[in-house]
Amino acid sequence: MARTRTWVGIALAGALTLSLAGCSSTGGKRAEDARKAAAAQGRAAVNTPRWTFAMITHSGDGDTFWDIVQNGAKQAAVKDNINFLYSHDDEAQQQAQLVDAAVDKKVDGIIVTLAKPDAMKAAVARARKAGIPVITVNSGSEESKAFGALTHIGQDETIAGEAVGEELNKRGRKKALCVLHEQGNVGHEQRCAGVKKTFDGTVENLYVTGTNMPDVQSSIGAKLQADTSIDSVVTLGAPFADTAVKARDDAGSKAEIDTFDLNAKVAAELKNGTLGFAVDQQPWLQGYEAVDLLWLYKYNADVLGGGKPVLTGPQIITRDQAAELEQYADRGTR
Fold first, then answer.
1. For 87-122, how does the pLDDT look when each residue is reduced to its tens digit (9 = 90+)?
2. CA–CA distance from 311 to each of 190, 194, 197, 209, 217 (Å)?
3. Which ranges in the chain belong to alpha helices (H)?
4. Is 307 helix (H, G, I), strand (E, B) or coil?
5. pLDDT digit string (tens) for 167-207?
6. What SS3 string covers 126-156?
7. What angle do CA 182, 102, 113 make, to 5 degrees?
8. Which of 27, 153, 159, 169 is exposed most, by the fewest CB atoms within 10 A?
9. In 10 A of CB 320, how many CB atoms?
10. Cα separation, 81 vs 36, whole angstroms
11. Which residues contact 329 (CB under 8 A, 6 or more apart)?
């Protein structure tokens, strides 16, 4: 009997040790996160009908920013029992045709970007005429309400640009190069205009072909070599920041490289000082909230924003915050 009690005591002690180890500040949290993720995989948290939502963006091929947006949208879709469809085209007319195709499929909701709003207006109108609720995301905050969308989710691009100008002032910069990688994108124009509005120095716009990274690098490098007074380069997307760093180094320039948007590479380069700062608009949150708000509208006729955009940015990220956010960027949620 005593021997039995001894072995029971050893077993209980071992179990308690494992339990305490699992509750440590790191291992326990990671285990709990993994458990929750596994439990939620493929399972809806609601019993509402399996509606179909389509997201159609102006993304070009290989733009990692939109991978983050999709990560958020897909996670919300699982939770809300949504069949989520994603398509994209960086040519406005083709993007509009994708919206038309979603309308023809009689989807239950549409999420769309308005980078080139004039080309998208008729397609959005057809969706609304068909009784399909529309939410705009990322770009088109100024046109969203007029086009009949329920709300817009993203950052105000002018305000974001103004935040960059103010940050450049704090850093004592005198001349900035604003690199626009998609001509005709109204959001990009607004960003650079915002920088000019608040920056005490001078700003020059540089238009590049964003789908051709060697061209982006050579264009930035040539500009830095021709004008050594440029002490800051502002790129409008995270994938272009590293290319600007290479261009700067090749040109022998000492200009600081700053960027809009955050990803794992940007977080790492902020942390090691390669980049000065980044403007985070939280793309994962944009995707998640867009799906979730459409679900809320379908389920309960809820809307957010009171006729104003639901802002997810801007947030200035510097080296001080990079270490904290790097883990989230690595997993594709920041």
1. 999 999 999 999 999 999 999 999 999 999 999 999
2. 16, 16, 20, 29, 32
3. 2-22, 27-40, 64-79, 92-104, 117-129, 141-144, 157-170, 186-198, 213-226, 238-251, 264-271, 283-300, 319-330
4. coil
5. 999 999 999 999 999 989 999 999 999 999 999 999 999 99
6. HHHHCCCCEEEECCCHHHHCCCCCCCEEEEC
7. 30
8. 27
9. 10
10. 17
11. 262, 263, 264, 266, 267
- CA 293 – CA 171 distance, rounded (Å): 39
Predicted structure pTM score: 0.82
Rounded Cα distance between 3 and 9, Å, is 10
Query: Which tokens belong to 4?
Result: 């039995």
Phi and psi based region of residue 236 (left: phi greater than 0; alpha: psi -120 to 50; beta: remaining)? alpha
Beta partners for 213?
none
For residue 47, give both structure tokens. Answer: 């019993």
Burial class (CB in 10 A: 0-12, 13-18, 19+), 239: buried
